[in-house]
Amino acid sequence: MEEKKLLELKPQGLYCPQADVFIDPWKPVDKAVITHAHSDHFRWGMKHYLAHHHSENVMKLRLGQDISLQTIGYGESLEINGVKLSFHPAGHIPGSAQIRLEYKGKVAVVSGDYKLEDDGLSVPFEPVRCHEFISECTFGLPVYKWEAQDEVFGKINKWWKNNAENNRNSVIFAYSLGKAQRVLNHLDASIGEVFVHGSVWNTNQALIANQVKVLDAPKVTAEMPKSKFKGAIIIAPPSAIGSSWMKKFAPYRTAVCSGWMSVRGTRRRRAVDSGFVLSDHADWEGLISAIKGTGAEKVFLTHGSTAVFGRYLEEVEKIHAVELKTLFQGESSSLDED
């Protein structure tokens, strides 16, 4: 009798047949294990969810308080029909996890999305030794090489200060889950007041309730006079670009935080004044380092430059790489909301 695979791809998503669970499924299933709460990995319609503690209130905010949700901490494990399942830090956003599955001596890890740099917000990435590793490669080209975040935030604070000194308000666009909180935690509050869009504020409250350390900045309300925002910086999701909501901040300058800001012309296409290269995904070197750190004999690559990156792993690193067709998107080049 042929032994079951530890992981296989089904129409609903990645599936562990021995444990009868799906990891980040994109169609309704009975049991879903969630790597993190971005919308391409966490979807409506599952009967039961398993996720990290820090994702609990964000998931309920997004899908409703009545979802059937069990949470677990990093390093804790469950045994399901002989499969040992555990969560390990991915460093992507608060609550993001790599899912380790072990059965009869074989180990597979589904990494979800990840980055190696400690952002001061998420629990930092930890390599997990395994035989098979499922990895994103959103930025899997050599051209993608991130600056240290201290340098990026130095540029953001300098931009804000310059705007304030020239009687302009600053509006910076970042995903409401993960990127917005990362930016908030690194702003120089001595420059001026900090405000957030309602969707960012709601997300902040959910994270704070789960003991994630986030700057609790006030949200913009309709009652606030324009004078309140003089010299301030406002954090908003990309969906607010060009919306009528922006009118009360005039005169203002705008900027986007994204890994795609390293691609020439992206800022112009998004009709913003400035762009800062800041990603919650690993760059080219980070991907290689993470994969080598697992010791995996086989790597499955999802969303991004899978063909180019896979060829590099095969020819240079001598690691067997396979493209895996999923519905995960990574950091969308359109900069749509997560």
Structure, described:
One of its GO terms (molecular function) is exonuclease activity. It is an enzyme of class 3 (hydrolase). The longest helix has 17 residues, at 149-165. The mean pLDDT is 93. The termini are far apart. The chain folds into two domains: 8-143 and 281-323, Metallo-beta-lactamase, Chain A; 149-276, 3-Layer(aba) Sandwich (Rossmann fold), CATH 3.40.50. Helices cover 21% and strands 25% of the residues. It has a seven-stranded mixed β-sheet with strand order 7-8-9-10-11-17-18, with helices on one face. It has 338 residues and is an alpha/beta fold. It has helices at residues 56-63, 149-165, 179-184, 198-209, 266-269, 284-294, 306-317, and strands at 8-10, 13-16, 21-23, 31-33, 48-52, 69-72, 77-80, 83-89, 97-103, 106-110, 132-137, 169-173, 194-196, 233-236, 252-257, 274-276, 298-304, 320-323.
